[in-house]
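Recap quiz, item 2
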Amino acid sequence: MSKELLFISQHWNIEFNHAAGETASVFFRAIKERKEILGRRCPACKRVLLPPRSFCERCFVDTLEWVKVGKEGTIEAFTIVYEQFRGLPKPPYAIAYVLLDGASTAMVNFLKKVDLNNLQEALERIKIGARVKVVFKRKRRGRITDFWYELLHT
Amino acid sequence: MRVAILGVGQTSYEREKGISLDELVFEATKNALEDSGLNLQEIESVVTAGSDGLDGRAISNMTVSGSCGAYLKDEVKVSDGGIYGLVLAYLRVASGLFGNSLVVSWTKSSEVSPDTVGNLSFDPLYLREAGINPITYSAIQVSLYKHITGARDEDAAKVVVKNRGNALKNPLSHLKRKPSVKEIKSSRFVSYPLREIHIPPESDGACALVISSERWLKTRKKTGQKYAWIRGIGWSLEGYYRDEKKELVKLSSLRKAAKTAYKMAGIKNPAKEIDTAEVSDITAYHEIMIYEALGFCGDSEGIELVRKGVTEIDGELPVNPSGGILSSNPIFASSLVRVAEAALQVMGKAGERQVKGVNTALAQGFTWSGTQGSCVVILDNRI
Ligand SMILES: [Zn+2]
C-alpha cells in the first residue's frame, strides 16, 4: 500500500458585514463627501483621537466633540514592504504612522509617490519626522483607502 | 496556594509535520504526562489555547478534545497565545478548585498562510486595508525603535546568530543552521527594516504542561522529581489603537505584567536575580526591546546587552537558550514553549542547552503579533 500522506484543501469564504458604528460612519462620510479628516476630543484628557472613537478608553468617558484635523502631518514610524503577501497590494509599497496636525494620535496609511525600487534612495526621502500631506482619491467609497500620504517637500 | 509545573511535553518543530492536528496535540500531551509522572486518570482540569483562524476550524478545541486528554474532563479554551492557557490553568489550580491541570497549545502553520490570518486579526475598518499584518506591523514598530535607540542591523544580526546558534543544541528546533553575520546582512528586506532572517519561521508544533498545587502534590507519594514553582505571574493589555508614538515601542503591557510578576516573586533587581529568560523574539529587534521592558537594562540600553554578549548562552543573563521563536515558531504555542523551556531550565532538564546554575528563570509571551498583550512568568526550583 502507498504511504503517501494526503492533504484536504479547503477555503473559508465567509462574508462579514462589520458595523462601523455612528462615530466611524461620520468619519468615513466626512472623507467621502467633504475630504475632511475628523478626530474626537476626549473631554477629560483633551486628546484628539484618530481614528475617532466614541469613548476614551483611558478616561472611560464619552467623547462628544468632533475636531477637524490638518491635512498635513509628520511621519512617526514606517515600513517599506518588498514581499507579496496574500490579499495585500503588489510590492513595493510604504506604510506610515502619521501624526496629523492637531491630532494626538497617529493614523496608519499608505505613503505613495516615492520610488521604492532602490531602498537606499527611498530612505533618503522617507524619514521619521518628515512632513507629509493627505491626498484624497477622486472616487471615494468611505474607506480608509480613500486617502494616502505623500511627502511634502520633494 | 503555591503551584508548580510538574512536567513538560513538546513535539519537534518542523515546517510541515506530516501528521494531523489531533495527532500533533496527542504527541505533546502524552509527552507532558510522561514527563510529569501522572496518568490521565489523575488529571482534573484541561486548559487549551489555540487560534480558530490558524486552525481553520471554528471551536478548534473540539478537534483536539480527545488528543489533549479532555474526554469527560473539565476542559476550557482561551483563544489567545499559549501562555494565557497557563494563566487560566494557574488560576484554576491556585484557587483550589482543581488539584492539577494540563495546559495545551498548538499551531500547524503549514496548513494555512499565517500572514493572511494575521492580517485578519487586525482592525477591519482602519488597519486591514492599510497593509497591516504581523510582519508589517512589527516592521513599523522596529523603525521607531531603531530611530529612538540607534539599534543597528548588526545588533539584530547578533541576536539572530545567538538564537540560531543556541537552537543547534535543542534537538526539537525547526531551523538547525547557524547563519553567518555576512549571510544575515545580505538577507533580503521583507518589510524594511526587517530582513527575512530577522523574522521567525512558520512551524508546526505543540506544547503541553502539567501543573499542580502544593496541596495536591502532598497527597501523592514523594518521587524526588524536581519541579518548577510558579513564583510570580502577571499579565496586562494595552490599547487596541496603539497610536501614540511613545506607546508604539514602549511595550507598556509587558512593563506592567513584569512589575506584577516581580512583585509577587519578590524580585527587586531582575538582571541580578534572574538566571535565564525565554522571551518572545517575534523579530530579532523585539528581543532587544523586551530586555528594556523587563528591566534587564535601562531604556535604550538593550543594544548594550547584545553588544557585550550579556544574553549569550554563556553570558551573565542568557536569553533564549532554546533558540527562541527565531528558531522554532508554532505560532500560538510559541509563548507556552517559552514557559516549557524556562521550566526545563529550572528543573535542570534542558540537556545540551542547559544554562549552568539556574534557580530562577523568566518566561514571557505576547498574545500574538502587535505586542499589545503580554504575560510574564517567574519560575524557580526552591521547595
Ligand atoms: Zn481621555
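Helices of chain A lie at 21-34, 119-125.
Residues A 42, 44-45, 47, 56, 58-59 surround zinc ion (CB under 6 Å).
End of item.
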